[in-house]
Structures are given as structure tokens and as C-alpha cells.
Amino acid sequence: MPFAATRPQLAHLTAVMDDLKARGTYFKLRVLDDEQGPVCHYDGREVINLASNNYLGLCNHPKLREAAIAATRKYGVGSGAVRTIAGTMRIHMELEEKIAAFKGVEACVVFQSGFSANAGTVSSILGKEDFILSDELNHASIIDGARLSKAKIKVFRHKDVAHAEELLKEVQNEPGRKLVITDGVFSMDGDIGPVGELADLCERYGAIMMVDDAHASGVLGRNGRGSVDHFHATSKVDVQVGTLSKAIGALGGYVCGSRDLIDFLYHRARPFLFSTSHPPSVAATCIAAFDLLESEPERIARLWDNTWYFKKQLTDAGFDVGGKTTPASETPITPIILGDGRRTMDFSRALFDQGVMATGIAFPTVSEGKARIRTIMTSEHTRPQIDRALDIIVSTAKTSGIL
């Protein structure tokens, strides 16, 4: 039976795709043929992988595999319900208790994704009489949550604490709560948010402080406790959001804070209320991952050694890795800024053909004129692999007229 063609009612979608193709920013999903590693196979081609969020190599760590298998054998493959009906298993509570203890807070709630953790939290704790002050480069999940809350949104210039204070002064006598929110690490540029300064600002003005630590979890702070710990601001941050999908190596997101905050989210956060809970294998995997953060700190040290080496080599070769036309990268996320979307996507495809998986990012994920190749270093890349990737990046850039 032949597939049905696009009906006229959806012709506008075809027009958008045709426009992306004309601009050179259309892409097809690359398919991973084996496990997520520093060298793996996409679309049948062996490549050095510089595109994964698997910062610490935990996606395929033997202890996490064992934990997942053991939990599946003991509890089955699914929970069978949402958390508030019949889907809260003891292992879900163990994971939340583990994260809360790791973060040094009273309580934690786990969501099905980092995106839903952000969007569900912002949209539930504020209403139309309230104000949100958000960094202009905050993650899309924060933006969506802010819109869903119907609160009044004010955007401060990127990492500009003085501008955030100006906005707080403007609304301090207005009725309603005030929430200041920032990424701990910004996902496209790899720079670190001014968490400590913003937390102090919130203290002075009585505002709620919230941090999205998705790309800081497992990367910054003691044993990967995140940017809040990195800035010694745990007692001043009311809402900490983290992810289980990046350095932790599995799937999901979480929110940490006071017991009252978490109990409120149990009752009001819509993604929590209306999504089936994690399979027990995922919860067990995450518990094992947090144990590894405590017992194998050398992984984080190795991640940073690789990161600084890779950045220096790219900079020495003449690439713009942030700091010229964009914020300077300070973490394992290292963008190669090219500006033009078509040129960026062509460069990404050329790198893949030569054996390097490095994703091109263009509008609307980033602003027009800010297209880049986003690279991410991990603890598991060896120096020969990094050097080989650098050779390919430099030689391909020269061939393409980028260098």
C-alpha cells in the first residue's frame, strides 16, 4: 500500500522544509549503529564523536549496565502508571533521596526529561501576577515554561547582573512574586552563568532564584554537583534543575530544593502528573551513576584535561571558539563559530565525510549570523583520538576555505 502524500492542509510545512533546503540548513538525522562512545559508527561510518553529551562515558559504564539489568529482572520493564496513581516504585524514591543528598538539599523530584523539569516547574510555581527575569540565552525549556506560566517576562542581557538588577528595581514594588532564572552552563556557547552574583541579587531583593544546571551536572562543582555548588550558593538557590540525560548517562531531569517545593511539584507540575514514571532500569542506572560521581572523580579531572587541550589546539589553529562574536566558552562545550548557516552545515557534512562527527547548529537554534559547529569533549577521548580529530578539523577547514 503506497504512503499518502502530504495533503493541502499541511502544505505550509513542505514550504518551510523547501526554504531550509534553499538556505542549506536542512538536515537528516544521523543514526548511531552501536553504543555512544568517543569513536562509534553513524550511518555505517566510523567517526570520532564530538557531538555527544556523554561527558563522563557513563552511557555504557559496566556498573550502570549491571544496575539496569538487575532492576529489569527484579521489577520488570515498566512502572505501569503515573507517579500519583500507581507508578511510584520504591526505586524512584531511592533515586530522589540519592540526588537530594548529593545536592545537599531537603528533597528532589524526578521528571521524565530535563525539558519537562524546567517547563513544568516554571509554569507551576508562578502565575499571571508574577514576574520572571530570564537571561536572553536561557534554554528553550525555560522560555516555554515562562510562557506557560503566563507571568510577565523580562529578559536581561546575557550574564549582565547589573541589567538584571535594573529590571528587579523596576518591578520590586509591583504585586506578585519575582523569579530570576539562568542556565548554569549555556548549551550553545559553553559559558558559565553568574550564578553566585545572581543569587546574591535575589537575596537583596527577595526574589526566587532558579538555576538550570543541565550542562553543569557532572561537570562543575565538587564531584560534579553543578554550578550552584561551584559558586558555593546552595543555601541561596531556591530551585535547582538538573538532568539525568547528559553526564549521568541515562534519561530524565530533576528538581531539587525545599521539601515544600517538591511536595508542591508533586501536586501541581503537569509533566509529573500526566507522564508515566521512569522504567525501573533507568532509575537504577541513575542511582549507580551518582555513586560513580563520588567514587571515580578522576573521570571529571580527565574531562577537564581533555577540554583545555582541545580548546587550546583549536584556538592556536586560528578558529573562533567564542569570545569574539559570541560569549567565551568555559566548559567542555566548545563552539567553532562560522556565522553563516549554509557554510556551517557544509563544513559539518565535510567533517563527517572525513571521519569526525561534529554537529552544525544554525538558526533558529541560534541567532542568525551565529551558526557554529558545536563540539563536546568527554573524559573518554584519548589523546590520539583528539589529535586525529584536530588534524581532520584543521585540514578540512583549509580545504573548505575556512582557515
UniProtKB/TrEMBL annotation:
NADP found in the keyword field: no
Cofactor(s) it depends on: pyridoxal 5'-phosphate
CDD domains: KBL_like
Protein family: Belongs to the class-II pyridoxal-phosphate-dependent aminotransferase family. BioF subfamily.
Positions carrying N6-(pyridoxal phosphate)lysine: K246
Described function: Catalyzes the decarboxylative condensation of pimeloyl-[acyl-carrier protein] and L-alanine to produce 8-amino-7-oxononanoate (AON), [acyl-carrier protein], and carbon dioxide.
Species of the source: Granulicella sibirica
Keywords: Biotin biosynthesis, Ligase, Pyridoxal phosphate, Transferase
UniProt-recorded name of the protein: 8-amino-7-ketopelargonate synthase
Reaction catalyzed: 6-carboxyhexanoyl-[ACP] + L-alanine + H(+) = (8S)-8-amino-7-oxononanoate + holo-[ACP] + CO2
